[in-house]
TrEMBL record, chains A, B:
CDD domains: ThiL (cd02194). This is Thiamine-monophosphate kinase. Mg(2+) 2 binds at D54, D83. It comes from Echinicola jeungdonensis. Mg(2+) 4 binds at D38, S52, D83. Signal peptide: none annotated. Its EC number is 2.7.4.16. Residues 36-149 form the PurM-like N-terminal domain. ATP binds at Y113, G130, D131, R157, S236.
Amino acid sequence: MKEKRTEISELGEFGLIDHLNENIKLRHPSTIKGVGDDAAILDKGDFVQVISTDLLLEGVHFDMSYTPLQHLGFKAVAVNVSDIAAMNAIPKQITVSVGLSNRFSVEAVDALYAGVNAAAEHYNVDIIGGDTTSSRAGLVISITVLGEVEKGKEVLRSGAKDKDIICATGDLGGALMGLQVLEREKEVFMADPKMQPQLEKYAYVTGRQLRPDARMDIIHELRDLNVVPTSMIDISDGLASELFHICKQSGVGVRIYEDKLPIDKQTYDSAVEFGLDPITCVLNGGEDYELLFTIKQEDFDKLEKHPDVHFIGHVTKSEEGKLMVTKSQTAVELKAQGWKHF
Amino acid sequence: MKEKRTEISELGEFGLIDHLNENIKLRHPSTIKGVGDDAAILDKGDFVQVISTDLLLEGVHFDMSYTPLQHLGFKAVAVNVSDIAAMNAIPKQITVSVGLSNRFSVEAVDALYAGVNAAAEHYNVDIIGGDTTSSRAGLVISITVLGEVEKGKEVLRSGAKDKDIICATGDLGGALMGLQVLEREKEVFMADPKMQPQLEKYAYVTGRQLRPDARMDIIHELRDLNVVPTSMIDISDGLASELFHICKQSGVGVRIYEDKLPIDKQTYDSAVEFGLDPITCVLNGGEDYELLFTIKQEDFDKLEKHPDVHFIGHVTKSEEGKLMVTKSQTAVELKAQGWKHF
């Protein structure tokens, strides 16, 4: 009898994660929340501790042929800090583990760690440990971040309520277009190594891809303005996918407006140049590491004049579905294409 | 001008880690200890939190051709819990990240997680998060463990004092001999796939390699006996290497006795069969995940009758060096060969 073999691709990334999480039992009352949000939550008295971890693999999450090591070190920390931001928490400590193949020199490792250290300084976190080992198969980076927030101020994906206002920070789709540009220039270079990459006019979008910044500035400003979002998530897999997470976990629907979606001019122009629909890039482009959150209507005044917070729609009842109102005033159903690595 | 290129092998694993840690600055007063021990230590009021992380890579830390996935999942958790034990702390939560290549089926992932879940139950820890991603290059497992201990009861590598008694748990060298056996049987199988591996008579040593158990039992017993070791480390790189860590960080010397070193009969017999010196296996064999600790002389009575704690020597002044007294009563200098992955 042949053993059953189910391919991971049959489940997909989210399906596999759901499948693995089915069997998890929580044993400690101090574990307030395990898997299922941007970070886990532990009870530490007056504060809760939030914990998140990311595993970054060469050839899957980054391409060494166009990724400067210093930027990669910074980004590896930033994407983890972004998960802590998404809990409305402040990062405090990180562990940094790396697997290095022998094609790495000490100078290359130093460049990687220069980026890690710059990010640790930028986000005011302590590097408290890690593991350094050789790798037979490319660069591996695993970072775990610990953060803290006053108990009751932590924000989950599950708190959005009907009529809340949906906010997105910064602009979206840029990191995806940066990736497109970098991939194209790589192909040009591989076809003819004498060709130099043309990146000047794409500086903003390539910067979005190579060196994203977690929006801790927004978390500090929300605190100063005394606004606690009702739900929050960071935009790592694309706006539509993150909206779906909030809808699923809050049991709500959403209505967003195409003409409210924030897009940078360079992102827009690059998308057109590449024959892509700019709005699709905004909805499904990954790795922007902006924040998506919902606020009560009464908090609108406090954020109304914020130059970098955009009000893209509102929360609805679950049965109203997940809709985008286009510029021609048609309501279309949102699709979460997400960011699939499998 | 050519850029300088320094090979990692010039520094070695410990050299590279020291080099990278030179630039680390701690910013938060709640970070009591960062890198440099089995785990980091954070101030959480009446308790301290300890954190450790390990990165395990296929082809470096494990060989899929003879490692059952369920054992691998268990071991990945156990080696992390062992670091928490070495701080005299109790593990509470873990995060588990895995990178999976597409040759993995869902059934294979389930087997890996069956081991992870069995270990979570065995060590009474909650799985609170992780990251699941595809890998272009073999299986990657990254685990971070969080533990807790009453403030003041945490045990560092740095507290050993002259005349303290040196204790080692269990027996040593078995995991190394298990690895030798498994590697030999793999070669036999590769030369002639019709040959079946002969593992029955090596069940103990192969078990030590494939499914080690962190000594949380000892930590609970020390607590019950009201013994707080003066220093402690887990034996992952070999007894000699761990003794060197304690000597360096405590500023002391050691004198151990060959005839006191704990070795199992099967380990001894396998070493002889392989033409290896059994005592070298005990001193330099890695991955036993036993505990090495020092106690004050006044605590000796409490542990004297413990069947699984062995008194292998005593701490001396730094200038007396690191010595082993052989069975022929000669004092020889210890060498820390350690376990080099680079």
